[in-house]
């Protein structure tokens, strides 16, 4: 059975804990799947795999956010698990086979973490009634525990057990479930782009959308190339608008 030294699951569990807690506020982007994949890949000795899985999950997450406290797939945790398990054997294919279902299934633990946190909220209310600022502060700080542990514990157990048990669980899942996970993984990037396009002034700037589509669909330009072309086009557009205003 392939597995890691005990310090690897411990450190990755702490990484997951810190990442999801930072997601509550300014996190310096550490909670992003791409960043987590890079860090995990560096730790397990396969940076390329970490970047590949992290980038794939980041693409899936486009346009998704916890608007109004909504629960979304936890791509951060998926990037950690997918990279760590994929590095043990199977590479990108095995990593994504773990990362995508894990990201989606983590929504259940996300709900659990949010529910348990209410214990500290009600405790803080009681301290507030007594005017105990120290108690309120402690409840505020301790409220991160259920939130972080819902990520740290699964990451520790999965990475500690190694690829063998995790792959056994995956293989034991019904084929209809795995097919559903595969279809979901294909749909999420499209959904993310649709959400982004819905927020952009497409009717006003539709020519740029058409140009981007032509570059990708017909000329086979990479995403990086399209991004650089968009940057140049945006710069020229702003300069021309500025020249018209000066005139």
Cα(first) to Cα(last) distance is: 72 Å
Structural class: mainly alpha
- Taking Cα atoms only, what radius of gyration do you get, to the nearest Å? 22 Å
The secondary-structure element order is: HHHHHHHHHHH
Roughly what fraction of the amino acids lie in strands? Answer: under 5%
In total, the number of strands is 0
Count of separate structural domains: 2
Q: Tell me about the largest β-sheet.
A: none
Give the helix level as a range of percent.
over 70%
What is the chains' assembly state? single chain
Quick overview:
The chain has helices at about 5-20, 35-45, 45-60, 75-90, 90-130, 135-140, 145-160, 165-170, 175-200, 205-215, 225-245.
What does this structure look like?
The chain has two domains: 7-199, no CATH class; 200-247, no CATH class. The chain contains eleven helices and no strands. The radius of gyration is 22 Å and the shape is globular. Helix 2 runs parallel beside helix 4 (75-88) and helix 5 (91-130) packs antiparallel against helix 6 (133-142). By secondary structure, the protein is mainly alpha-helical.
Salient structural properties:
2 domains, 0% strand
Q: What secondary-structure arrangement, pairings included, does this model have?
A:
Elements: H1 7-22, H2 33-44, H3 47-60, H4 75-88, H5 91-130, H6 133-142, H7 144-161, H8 163-172, H9 175-199, H10 206-217, H11 223-246
Helix pairs in contact: 1-2, 1-7, 2-3, 2-4, 3-4, 3-5, 4-5, 4-7, 5-6, 5-7, 5-9, 10-11
């Amino acid at each position: 059975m392939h597995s890691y030294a005990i310090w690897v699951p411990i450190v990755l569990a702490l990484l997951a804990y810190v990442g999801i807690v930072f997601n509550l506020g300014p996190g310096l982007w550490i909670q992003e799947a791409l960043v987590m994949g890079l860090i995990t890949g560096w730790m397990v000795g396969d940076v390329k795999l970490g970047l590949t899985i992290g980038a794939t999950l980041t693409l899936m997450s486009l346009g998704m956010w916890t608007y109004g406290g909504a629960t979304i797939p936890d791509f951060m945790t998926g990037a950690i698990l997918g990279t760590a398990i994929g590095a043990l054997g199977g590479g990108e294919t095995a990593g994504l086979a773990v990362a995508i279902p894990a990201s989606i299934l983590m929504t259940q633990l996300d709900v659990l973490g949010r529910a348990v946190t209410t214990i500290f909220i009600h405790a803080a209310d009681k301290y507030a009634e007594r005017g105990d600022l120290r108690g309120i502060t402690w409840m505020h700080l301790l409220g991160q525990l259920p939130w972080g542990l819902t990520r740290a514990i699964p990451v520790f157990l999965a990475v500690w057990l190694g690829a063998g048990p995790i792959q056994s669980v995956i293989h034991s899942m019904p084929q209809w479930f795995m097919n559903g996970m595969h279809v979901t993984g294909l749909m999420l990037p499209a959904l993310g782009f649709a959400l982004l396009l819905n927020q952009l002034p497409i009717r006003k700037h539709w020519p740029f959308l058409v140009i981007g589509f032509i570059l990708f669909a017909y000329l086979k330009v990479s995403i990086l190339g399209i991004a650089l072309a968009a940057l140049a086009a945006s710069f020229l557009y702003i300069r021309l608008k500025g020249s018209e205003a000066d005139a």
